[in-house]
Request: fold
Amino acid sequence: MVDNQIDLTKTKIGVVGAGSWGTALANLLALKGFMIDLWAFEKEVKDHIESLKMNSEFLPGVVLSDRIIPSNDINGVVKGKDLVLVVVPSHVMRETAHHIREHISKETIIVSASKGIENKTHLTMSGVLREILYETDEDSFVVLSGPSFAREVVNKVPTVVAVASKNSKVAGYVQHVFATPYFRVYTNNDMVGVEMGGAVKNVIAIAAGIIEGLGLGLNTRAALITRGLTEIRRLGLKLGANPRTFAGIAGVGDLVLTCTGNVSRNHTVGKKIGEGMKLNDILSEMRMVAEGVKTAESVYNLSESLGVEMPICHEVYHILYDGVSPKEAVHRLMTRDLKQELDEV
Reply:
């Protein structure tokens, strides 16, 4: 069903993933009038939403709409739906896709709101979904990305995101499904660029946190954001993205948010590393996933294989996985061979 005139009484939507972002988007859609089946991996999350109308684990203090029906049955959540929104951590996307494959209609529109690059295959999240859900039409896959902290969305803070699909009608349909007076949605046909922006910015956000943890200044942060955007653009262009995407919502918009917002999980990880904590100790304290930690490995290996120069992302990788000290990484970045600023493309 691809029609920009959305019928709330007939459109069936399932949301796979009840973390903070999945819950926030489910609530947004429910408040708009849709009945939402929401799959939660954890039984306690499902029970709390059912009995308390709250996701106490991942979005505490937020009263959720009565139109959200929580479930631990993933098959029931996706079966017979017009649109399925997938919002799970990148490292479980493949397993999740296998679970829903046999129960999802070939006509269902699949929207990925997860950000990351799979470690072994270097596929984006929509790439993983397309590989597993191979019977679904290529035009039915959509990605949603942009500068959007979950708690601000549930608090109806004005937010702008982008949805990208190879099919403009499908993108327009999803745009109308999600748009509200406080959640403005733009369309884009550059799925690669939108996903690269959403994934790699998490690695740069770790670097931004490290800078703060080291006590460095605003000059340093501004330089990091600017050169970080250059690295995202380089990788995206190598993969066929539209360079204009990186000057937009899913590019510089999302990058600025995660590099300056203290509630960013990736920024928090970086800050604690800059302050001297060990990565394993930081992750053991966290309930939610900081995608940039895994994405740093993917970006490092992918950029190496493609011959793409990404010095900031590489230094983040060396800090996380090789034990390089943050101060040494900063020194290496600042004393690299001097060169002109602008790339040829």
About this structure: The chain has a mean pLDDT of 95. The longest strand covers residues 159-164. Residues 192-334 form a domain with the N-(1-d-carboxylethyl)-l-norvaline Dehydrogenase; domain 2 fold (CATH 1.10.1040.10). Residues 191-214 form the longest helix (24 residues).
